[in-house]
Amino acid sequence: MLFNSFIFLFAFLPVTYVVFWTLRSTRARYVWLTITGYVFYGYWNPKFCLLMAFSTLVSYTAGLGLAKWTDPRRRKLCLVVPIVVDLALLAFFKYANFAVDTTRQVIHFLGADVTLPHLNIILPVGISFYTFHTITYIVDSYRGVIRPTRNLFEFSTYVSLFSQLVAGPIVRFRQIEEDLENIGTADRTRWIRVGVSFFIVGLVEKVVVADSLAAFVDPALARYTELSTLGTWLAMLGYSFQLYFDFSGYSTMAVGLGYLFGIRIPQNFNSPYKSLDPSDFWRRWHISLSSCLRDYLYIPLGGNRGGELKMYRNLMITMLIGGLWHGAAWTFVVWGAYHGMLLVLYRLVARQWDALPVVTRQLAMFLLAVIGWVFFRATDFGMAATLLRQMFWPTTGLNVAEPLLAAGMLSMAAWWAMVGPNAFDMRHEWSWRRGLALTAAAAACLAIIAGSRPSPFLYFQF
Amino acid sequence: MLGRAVVLAVLFALVFELTCRVEDLIRYGTPMFSPYTSQSDLIMRDANGARGRPNARFQKWVLNAVGTRGPEIARQKPAGTLRVVTAGASETFGLYESTDREYPRQLEDSVRASLIRGACRETFHNVEVVNAALPGMSLPTVVLDLQHRIATLAPDYVVYYPTPPQYLDEEAPGSTPAARATSPEPQATRALYPRSAARLRSQAKTLLPEFIQTALRRREVDRVVKDRPDGWRFTRVPEERLEMFDRDLRRVVGAIRATGAAPVLATNTNAFLGSQPASADMLYAWERFYPRATGEVILAFDASARAVIRDVARDSVTALADIEPAVRGPSAFADFSHFTDSGAGAVAGVMARTIVAEAERTGCVTGSRQPVPTTAQVLRP
Known about the structure:
The structure holds 2 protein chains of 2 kinds.
Chain A: H1 6-22, H2 26-42, H3 48-68, H4 72-109, H5 127-143, H6 152-160, H7 173-181, H8 188-222, H9 229-260, H10 278-284, H11 287-301, H12 308-326, H13 330-354, H14 358-377, H15 381-392, H16 403-418, H17 432-450
Helix pairs in contact in A: 1-2, 2-6, 3-4, 3-5, 3-6, 4-5, 8-9, 8-16, 8-17, 9-14, 9-15, 9-16, 11-12, 12-13, 13-14, 14-15
Chain B: H1 2-28, E1 43-46, E2 49-52, E3 57-58, E4 61-62, E5 81-88, H2 90-93, H3 103-115, E6 126-131, H4 139-148, E7 157-161, H5 195-206, H6 210-226, H7 239-258, E8 262-266, H8 280-289, H9 295-315, E9 319-321, H10 341-361, H11 375-378
Parallel strand pairs in B: 5-6, 5-7, 7-8, 8-9
Antiparallel strand pairs in B: 1-2, 3-4
Helix pairs in contact in B: 3-10, 4-7, 6-8, 7-9
């Protein structure tokens, strides 16, 4: 089920909302949110609800163990078992075919001829996200950062909360623990206006900006070999903004939905195209993922400790795994490596870089990000190489349908992403004028949604 | 408070409607105040039967000055141009495909790409595919259209993609009765008809889960059947209807030849063939359009008609684009028989290969310049 579909907006959400606020007890609200989370998830493919339920039960049980035992060996077991189970599920569903294909290529490269079957595996939507939810919960419980919950429904609400279930943000238990515990006494009227406001802003980002950009980006990149230099740049700039507004729109809607149910979900995008250097970029782009990678991978690897070389190694490992998390393909690994290199290079030349004018740094960082998106978008290295060659080896022509319209949409998106306010910069208290603006924005979004099939969010594939 | 709520409601309605119009303008080039408000407005009737209304447009469906879907064409065929006309019903007209991805448009690209590289590149410098299909167009209506309109376009090939289940309707298809007067243009005031209504109607359907939609379809079919006498419903393939289909198809082949073009017949396909057939729910959706036949009879009739098409092609020495084995599977169909972009692409691929092979086989001589059986020979005694 998509946030930008009529079934969600006019059936699922109203029913979930009304029943939730009609229920009075904490337990009843947990149960209701769990049920709705599974309905939301099962609408895509009911079979995979079992997978999520299994992952939830394993982590919940391990959490109980961590709450009960002080013996280090038992605690270690409670840490390792759920993480291995979660990562094994993720590895099987997401990376099995990648491993098989890579093995086949290596064997072929070595001159042998072995037939390895391509496994018929469907990647469950959102598995990368809820796996991170359960792993961060277990690690935080083990570290004593949080007190593991004894309430199964509180935990299952956290894992299956529909607003963040399939495309994040990756919310850590500690970030919403207080709101979850107070869910029985939450004040409906306190957050409704903020929630509606966030949701509509997110809807505009997705439906008006991202999907409009997709209308020229998708056809252009479908025939990428025919693009000229200008056409390739237009397509890749368009894709850069499309990806941002698509994912940021989803996250903003998730925040709005969280507010509607009394749960404050943290910011996931802080205008990443305003960043001035690679470190800044990763503090602003997909904040929930980059902070997880920092806290659960980079720092355990040693972080900044142990000298510069070790720090660079840790950065590269973190970014490579971050790249692989996005998708089971070598292009994602290269994308991660590219950003790892940018981070290392920035550390090496930070003093000279920071001396440059702000506008230069912002534009340069943006262009570096756009080049990285080539690997992110390309389906294989051939496509990436072609796009890069077309971008930097001048050829004449345009080859983009409706170039003026495309340029107009790009300008609007560029202004909002690079100069304008993001959803968290905006005021969400309602005034009469703001009410008018939100009403008009909602009407425009719904008219567009009504005119086409809802387009899925790009980050669903991860 | 109430006053403000009313203001917000009015604002919502106005912006919703305005957005529909602006989006139609941007996406499809539809004027903000176009009088065409539904697909049926694209069809007009006159003394020559039903045809496309010249320059009419509704959402993505845009008719040219000749009244066919697609880009403008010169009535007089330019020299060195291979002109292919596609005839048929909604499968050919295109319902679900993105703009310019219906199979006639993709056929144009495919034929152009292979013909101009092939043996006929000296004869043909350009390829035009004219999509003369309209939703619901039956074989007898196609015959009229061939005689009165398509013939004037001097096509080299006319491709016909059939919709056999039309012969399971209440009455077997006849030619559209001639109207005494040409249907008038829609009134200018219809430009004010809210476009938001059509969008909301189509979205409202998606609010119902599939099983409820199926239950409603079954109820609708049951209601129609209940009012009819016993034996009204086809519970096996009605042979007389199949014979009518055979006869009408042979007439179409004759009518195509009479225009000076070479006919190409396509075999019909549907979403219930192959290793991943569509669901039973989808079959109920199809049944709703032809309540006189059970779902099984629709499928059986569609299959029998395919055999008829092959027979007619063989008897009449007509090129056959065998779509059925090549276009199968869930990715090819948006519903029971209409194509997705990729399905339309696959159809276009098969048709293009057939046309190019035919053109090269005949030494790049097309249409009536080839020796072909006469209409009388094609028609069964």
